[in-house]
Amino acid sequence: MAELIAQLHAEAIAERLAAARERIAQAARAAGRDPGGVEVLVAAKYVPVGQLPELARAGVRLLGENRAQDLEVKAAAYGDLFTFDFIGQLQSRRVRAIIPHVRLIHSVASVSAMRELARRRELARPGLELLIEVDLAGEEGKAGVGPDEIDALIEIAPFPVTGLMGMPPATDDPQRSRPHFAALRELAAQRGLSRLSMGTSQDYAVAVEEGASIVRLGRGLLV
Description:
This protein has helices spanning 10-30, 52-57, 68-78, 95-98, 111-119, 150-155, 178-190, 204-209, 219-222, and strands at residues 39-43, 62-65, 83-86, 102-108, 129-134, 161-166, 195-197, 214-217. By secondary structure, it is of the alpha/beta class.
């Protein structure tokens, strides 16, 4: 379980968020992209529910949650302040709790999850979209499907699949993530998918250069 941050400070987060947005803008312009095409999603798993107003004060509007139970509590308390996405491993038994609260699920990676989404479709928030999570490097035990499994999931999706999500192998060198980001971009382009959820606090600038439309920032932004 993620270690929660006891106290957030809106002013400091706002400064770091502004710096991150400027770095994103520089990376986007270097790649010939519109910086406005990149969303900053803040990972909320580190944030106790009572601290969420500090994020709103800092200018954060898009939150990603990893746990269905936490999502339910946070959306009930502050759904008027934020838009929520689900970014954790999507378990079939948790679909019912997730889909009323989110605009995107970033992490669809199984036939069973797709079938449960279909069974529960009447509970979904209007406009729900799905991203397929892809295992970029074929790592054993890592979440995500192989590239050859993407189309089969899209075919049975009960909601629009508008993009892909991926997490490269862990590395201290962001440049080593570049070929994985580029491969995910190509997989999305081949299928006409517009959303690419890729890049975290360690490598988001490289991800933007390679086409990310959503970057996921966590503790590096918050503390």
